[in-house]
């Protein structure tokens, strides 16, 4: 069983280059985090990465995270970053107007600066950025539904990168910025694997499921016992497999199938709504 999660440096370097190219084109950044891992899904040095541009943090998938923790994390992130933080979901159309209004609010200094230079105000240019699978594309699609009017490429932008007018005052880059992931912290890497932000080739499902159960037992043991009907048993992959009668050769529990099952249950929110990061992380 491989218990080390790894990426390839070439991919990280390419992601950094592509993100910097996009950052040069925008005024405001929507940084999307996974509400289940609000620290682990964030980039460590955002000041350098985002060049002090106005930023709104979307604490996304809050419908899958611990509702008792969401407002606490919103406050912590706002105090830590100085950015506005909004609680959003992947399917929440009701979030759209809230996001648009906050973009207009936060971009006022940018517009004022243009006017002070004698320039005509133009729509604010926005990019959605974040780690893989935190909900960037869903956020873009939700905003684009407001208006499907593509306005073509800007100078210095490849033809694949299109701008969409989502409000009379806002243009959105319709491709997300992928934040490069570092691999120097294996605890963070594991949490990214739990929420499916890392390709499956980078980790072993059995190891990931085993470590996920260990982490969940610390805060949400009763949820696990109730969901997997393990009231009088230890919470292990083996016992969960045996309870479901998933048996392979010689009567052994089907660890492979059950590991995938546990990870899928967590990602879909079937076991419960959990937040994995702690305030001191």
Describe the structure.
It is a single chain. The longest helix has 24 residues, at 205-228. The protein is elongated, with a radius of gyration of 21 Å. Strands 1, 2, 3, 4, 5, 6 and 7 form a 7-stranded mixed beta sheet that branches. The protein has helices spanning 9-23, 46-50, 67-81, 95-106, 108-116, 136-144, 186-194, 205-228, 237-243, 255-267, and strands at 28-34, 55-60, 84-87, 124-130, 163-167, 170-173, 177-178. The chain is built from 10 helices and 7 strands. The chain is 42% helix and 12% strand. The chain has 281 residues and is of the alpha/beta class.
In short:
The chain is an alpha/beta fold.
Categorize the overall geometry: elongated
Low-confidence regions: 151-159
The pLDDT mean sits at 87
* Binned strand content: 5-15%
Q: Number of helix segments?
A: 10
Helix content: 40-55%
Would you tell me the structural class of the helices and strands?
A: alpha/beta
The helix/strand series, from N terminus to C terminus, equals HEHEHEHHEHEEEHHHH
- Cα-atom Rg, whole angstroms? 21 Å
How many beta-strand segments?
7
| Span between termini | 27 Å
Largest sheet: 7 strands, mixed
């Amino acid at each position: 069983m491989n218990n080390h999660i790894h990426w390839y440096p070439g991919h990280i370097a390419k992601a950094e280059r592509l993100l910097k190219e996009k950052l040069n084109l925008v005024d405001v950044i929507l940084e999307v985090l996974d509400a289940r891992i609000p620290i682990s899904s964030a980039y460590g040095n955002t000041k350098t990465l985002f060049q002090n541009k106005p930023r709104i943090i979307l604490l996304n998938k809050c419908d899958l995270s611990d509702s008792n923790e969401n407002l606490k994390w919103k406050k912590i992130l706002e105090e830590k970053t100085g950015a506005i933080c909004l609680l959003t979901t992947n399917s929440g159309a009701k979030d759209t107007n809230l996001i648009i209004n906050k973009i207009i609010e936060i971009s006022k200094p940018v517009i004022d600066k243009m006017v002070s230079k004698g320039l005509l105000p133009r729509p604010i240019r926005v990019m959605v950025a974040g780690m893989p699978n935190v909900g960037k594309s869903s956020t873009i699609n939700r905003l684009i539904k407001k208006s499907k009017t593509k306005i073509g490429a800007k100078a210095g932008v490849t033809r694949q990168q299109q701008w969409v007018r989502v409000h009379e005052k806002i243009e959105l880059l319709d491709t997300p910025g992928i934040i490069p992931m570092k691999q120097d912290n294996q605890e963070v890497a594991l949490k990214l694997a739990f929420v499916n932000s890392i390709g499956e080739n980078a980790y072993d499902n059995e190891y990931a499921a085993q470590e996920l159960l260990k982490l969940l037992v610390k805060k949400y043991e009763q949820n696990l016992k109730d969901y997997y009907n393990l009231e009088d048993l230890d919470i292990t992959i083996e016992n969960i497999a045996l309870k479901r009668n998933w048996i392979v050769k010689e009567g052994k529990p089907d660890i492979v199938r059950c590991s995938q099952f546990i990870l899928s249950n967590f990602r879909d929110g079937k076991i419960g709504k959990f937040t994995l990061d702690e305030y001191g992380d």
